[in-house]
Amino acid sequence: MKKLELVFKSEDQKVKTLRLNYVSSKLNNEALISAMNRIGALKMFRVNGMNQYQVPVAARYVDTNTETIFDTRNEDKQTAK
Q1: Sequence-distant (≥ 6) Cβ neighbours of residue 52 within 8 angstroms
Q2: How far apart are CA 20 and CA 25, in angstroms?
Q3: pLDDT single digits (tens) 2-18
Q4: How many other β-carbons are positioned within 10 Å of the β-carbon of residue 1?
């Protein structure tokens, strides 16, 4: 599954990452910069009075793949019946 990571600098100059699932994989840099600027301007993510997502720094897609080696959870349910 692809996830979108939006990296910001907070008001206290710390790097903060906002991770989103179920996003379009066709977003371009102009759309993302615009959206990230709007998120920062909303100032809705505040901790101790500090805006956590103030200045856009980076955006990236992260592709996570899970390779199951074994999983016995479903076998236990069938045995219980």
Answers
A1: 8, 10, 11, 16, 45, 46
A2: 12
A3: 899 999 999 999 999 99
A4: 9
